[in-house]
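Checklist before submission:
- one chain only
- standard amino acids only
- sequence pasted in full

Submission:
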Amino acid sequence: MVMLVSWRIDRLFLIVAFLAMANGAAFAPVAHAQQTPAKRTQAQKPATKPATKPMGPKQAAAAQAAKLDAAAPSQIGPTTIARFAYMIDMQTDTVLLAKDADKPMAPSSMAKMMTTYLLFEGLASGKLKPETQFKVSDRAYAITRGVHSSTMFLELGAEASVADLIQGIIVDSGNDASVAVAEGMAGSEEAFADRMNKKAHELGLKGSVFKNASGWPAEGQFVTAADLARLAEHTIKDFPQLYRHYAQREFTYNGKTQPNRNLELKTVPGVDGLKTGHTEEGGYGQTTSAVRDGRRLILVLNGLESIADRARETARLIEWGFRETSNTTILRTGDALAEAPVWLGVQDKVPLVIPTDVKITTVVGQSALPRAVAKFDGPLAAPIVKGTKVGVAAVTMPDGRTVEYPLETGADVAKLGIVGRLAATARHYLLGWLS
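Returned file contents:
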């Protein structure tokens, strides 16, 4: 009887175990069977950190102030959290901010400014037309397959117009568009890079070497913040009609609309260019230009940690430049700087004038005390025609630079007649003998 009861109990136990296994539970004590599913759930859905509340304006300002306090000082101008910085006033060529501005750094997509310069040059010379078509090669298409590669969404084997490619490079920061332009203009990206370096030399960019058209990381490729500012300045001066493309806020191509990565086009008054950039090596950077009341500032930042830092620092420093510095006209067109003696003229002297306004940049509240010196060889022989260049005006700026401006005659001076010339000659030699 005992054995029969035991067999029945064992059989019942096996049936219960079988049913438990059919329902997905392991044959184990109840407490253990409950833990296993719990562990699986945790493995499949890792616990997430509680959402961080966004900082308010005061907290954000305090965090930014803490970063600035910890940042290395600039050599010129205010402190910035950027690793590299440079800002100039384009009217006076005065440096308002410099932080390691001549040290090499990764250009990232800011290298596309040189690609665009050469593209503008081709259009201005007539070698290219807006409707000129460039084919999208395997190489141009393949670069868009990289991680975080900016793209215009060109299609393999298709053709794109120069007009579209300009917008694809500037607005979309398209690496594919950059390669397509390089190959279309020079046959290969390597040959185009040679053109980029030749142009850099012509423009006086002494600390920059380009290896490709897009700024894609490459060994031996580097620029300086000061060089990028000079490149921006040349672009604005050399191609005033084409520069407007840099202010374009969005571009639609192949059914896809992309906004310009230059956020300050929408948020900072007067900003009308130029180019953002980002790579793991170089960090976040941007070359920015803004104009207010006829005064233009160019700012280059690089080596920032985030898009937010880039946007905040760009806006802060542009506002600082316009708020804390100002331009003063110290000499106006036609102002006489000196008088030059005249030899054998109906007048003994002629005024020497500067044919352009001379402006200087000073920090608000500081007095402008420049020094201007007229340099010329005299006396000037008559007859003299008004507007004749006879020397230079050397103006010493508040920052210690000496800038030379042309010095011209401010009036016509006729030559003396024969009697007057004889009398003047006799008087000259007589007075010279008596002295």
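Reviewer check: The first helix runs from residue 2 to 22.
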